[in-house]
Design the sequence.
């Protein structure tokens, strides 16, 4: 049975994240790895900044997300 | 039939000619050595396949890429897999900081690139004005100081300002990259006389970046003594980018060889190449 809170079902899992300048809500995203997976991104080409700090790839799985976190996701693109 | 015999001095000359250097001096930046003096940008190619072929035809060893906000819309981006088309064993990937409006943003981009596994090299470019894309010298110097202290190999894109070039090499940048003319303008070396001063003063490699629109522009830079050039639009936007890449390769190799061979002095008067015909007067 799904856990509930006073605010209704599921809200216990909802997390607000400022993602690339836009406020978004996510469910069940505990780590950066979960977030990458939730967004269906190809991990190889993306770069992630968590609250202003550049993350190494190995840190993705251990970086725990909190409500209100600021995440920037960049990707390698063509350029001169 | 008369036979020719080479005397000792002539034999020595033939031997010297035979052993004369045929390979141009390599380019050294920081702790790495490159045989190509062409950097190639990856923007504006019509496909990743054409880009890969052009990289190959150009003989380049340093390839720039940009970092930008990921598209989270879920739409399929045909250029998203660009890294699959650039062999990291063959090319040094040089991330740029294009899009940064100030030193802080440029430093963040450089750190992000390094943290994600890209080389700790950065083409530092900060150009807040979208019309001319001219680099901000104050922010560039500030970012360079920070990044050099953090161990980055910094290649700053600058206006052709000899004073700024010296300040940057003094803080430890690995090169200076003065522009010939605005990015993508294909106007060539509008800043030629300033670049000449930068080359005279430089103790780090000078890479002419931006505005190079034809192989002759690249050759002009190399013949002046620039150590390398960075080209993007002229190749990517050519009718046949692969052939244009090869044309740039040839022009750059020829110009570097000419520079090393020693170009003759320019004169403001004639200097005869044939004996002046004195016998006609004596008739």
Sequence:
């Amino acid at each position: 049975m799904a856990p509930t809170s006073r605010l209704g079902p599921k809200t216990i899992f909802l997390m607000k994240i400022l993602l690339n300048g836009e406020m978004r809500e996510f469910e069940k995203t505990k780590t950066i790895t979960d977030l990458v997976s939730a967004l269906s991104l190809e991990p190889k080409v993306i770069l992630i900044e968590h609250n202003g700090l550049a993350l190494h790839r190995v840190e993705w799985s251990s970086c725990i997300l909190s409500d209100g976190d600021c995440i920037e996701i960049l990707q390698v693109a063509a350029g001169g | 039939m008369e036979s020719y015999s080479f005397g000792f001095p002539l034999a020595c000359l033939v031997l010297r000619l035979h052993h004369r250097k045929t390979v141009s001096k390599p380019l050294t930046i920081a702790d790495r050595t490159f045989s190509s003096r062409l950097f190639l940008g990856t923007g504006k190619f019509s496909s990743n396949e054409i880009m890969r072929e052009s990289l190959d035809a150009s003989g380049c060893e340093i390839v720039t890429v940009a970092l930008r906000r990921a598209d989270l819309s879920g739409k399929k981006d045909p250029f998203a897999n660009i890294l699959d088309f650039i062999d990291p064993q063959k090319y040094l990937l040089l991330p740029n900081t294009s899009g940064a409006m100030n030193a802080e943003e440029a430093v963040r981009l450089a750190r992000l690139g390094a943290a994600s596994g890209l080389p700790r090299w950065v083409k530092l470019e900060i150009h807040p004005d979208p019309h001319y894309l001219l680099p901000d010298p104050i922010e560039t110097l500030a970012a360079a100081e920070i990044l050099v202290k953090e161990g980055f190999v910094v290649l700053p894109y600058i206006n052709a300002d000899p004073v700024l070039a010296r300040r940057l090499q003094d803080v430890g940048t690995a090169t200076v990259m003065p522009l010939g003319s605005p990015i993508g303008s294909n106007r060539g070396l509008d800043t030629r006389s300033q670049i000449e001063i930068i080359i005279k003063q430089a103790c780090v490699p000078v890479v002419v970046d931006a505005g190079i629109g034809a192989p002759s522009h690249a050759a002009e830079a190399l013949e002046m003594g620039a150590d390398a050039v960075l080209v993007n639009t002229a190749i990517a936007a050519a009718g046949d980018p692969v052939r244009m890449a090869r044309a740039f390769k040839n022009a750059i190799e020829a110009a570097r060889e000419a520079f090393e061979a020693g170009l003759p002095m320019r004169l403001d008067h004639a200097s005869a190449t044939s004996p002046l015909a004195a016998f006609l007067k004596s008739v």
User: Anything to note?
Assistant: Helices of chain A lie at 32-38. Chain A has one domain: 12-75. Chain A touches chain B through 26 residues (CB under 8 Å). The beta strands of chain A are 4-5, 8-9, 14-19, 22-27, 46-50, 53-54, 69-78.
